[in-house]
Design goal:
It is built from eleven helices and ten strands. With 257 residues, it is of the alpha/beta class. The protein has two domains: 167 residues, P-loop containing nucleotide triphosphate hydrolases (Rossmann fold, 3-Layer(aba) Sandwich), CATH 3.40.50.300; 81 residues, no CATH class. Strands 6-7-8-3-9-10 form a six-stranded mixed β-sheet, sandwiched between helices. The structure holds adenosine-5'-triphosphate.
Length: 257
């Protein structure tokens, strides 16, 4: 049984079919890539999986349970964590505060107890800060712990966003173009972190990614969307050599790999 099963999903906006009968599986501990040209329907599929958009037809299962009708926060509580193409951080606060805010989705005391500082909240807060520090170490961000996020360079912010998603304890981590705007060195470092996430924390990853060398390095399996439908699927090396994928999307990019 896959961790995530997307079966025959169709999503239209007025006359535009953004996803047409899309089927894909993500098994536990896999790193799966979702690639395709601009407008192919990748972000729409992410929005359907996370519940931002209702689907027109098909079914989405998580650990075998149909989640197609669940709300976004209910899917998040089940363990689906997601990053955004544009950074989803709380401006004007520190990196640490962002990680604490993200964890409060799962902290077991009510908002009022947190606000008045009831005794049990102190122990919980210590735990929350401890977990934030572990994540900062894991993502090589400790040196930025107390920096205001607004002052940080983009490459660091992308990493902070990954850290905040990790702080929600996802079983399935959905990343939307995690390497966009990163330098080649930063992108390499991101690849290291993603592989360690899987190896050391057992996190499963589904990622939209344009940077072919990163996809080839970290992904076990790749799905290619084109005009809302699946054009191809396979291991990264098969995808790189797939004539239709090269024609529709990769073109000269395969040389870069
Ligand atoms: P990119 O790589 O540029 O982010 P994508 O593969 O993620 O592209 P989508 O953003 O999912 O593609 O867009 C797929 C199609 O659906 C496009 O034609 C887009 O204009 C359309 N679309 C997406 N969201 C909406 C919306 N909320 N309302 C209307 N049309 C939409």
């Amino acid at each position: 049984m896959g961790l995530l099963e997307v079966h025959g999903v169709t999503k239209t906006f007025g006359g535009i079919t953004a996803n047409s009968d899309v089927t894909l599986d993500v098994s536990e501990w896999e790193i799966v890539g979702l690639i395709g040209p601009n407008g192919a329907g990748k972000t729409t599929l992410f929005n359907c999986i996370t519940g931002v958009y209702p689907i027109d037809s098909g079914v989405i299962r998580f650990r075998g349970t149909d989640i197609s009708d669940l709300k976004t926060h209910e899917r998040a509580e089940l363990g689906i964590g997601r990053s955004f193409q544009n950074l989803g951080l709380v401006r004007g606060t520190t990196v640490l505060q962002n990680l604490i805010t993200a964890q409060h989705m799962t902290v077991p005391y009510g908002v009022m107890a947190g606000m008045v500082g009831a005794p049990e909240t102190y122990a919980v807060e210590r735990e929350v800060v401890g977990k934030a520090d572990q994540i900062l170490n894991f993502t090589d961000l400790m040196e930025y712990r107390n920096e205001i996020v607004d002052d940080l360079p983009y490459g660091v912010l992308k990493n902070v966003e990954l850290a905040t998603v990790l702080a929600t304890d996802p079983q399935l981590l959905m990343l939307d173009e995690p390497s966009s705007g990163l330098s080649p060195t930063e992108s390499d470092r991101l690849g290291d972190i993603l592989l360690r996430l899987r190896e050391e924390l057992g996190v499963t990853i589904l990622m939209i990614e344009h940077h072919v060398p990163l996809v080839l390095r970290v992904c076990d399996f790749v799905y290619v969307l084109n005009f809302g439908t699946l054009l191809a699927q396979g291991k990264p090396k098969e995808i790189r050599e797939h004539p239709e994928v090269i024609a529709a999307y990769l073109g000269g990019e395969t040389d870069a790999a």
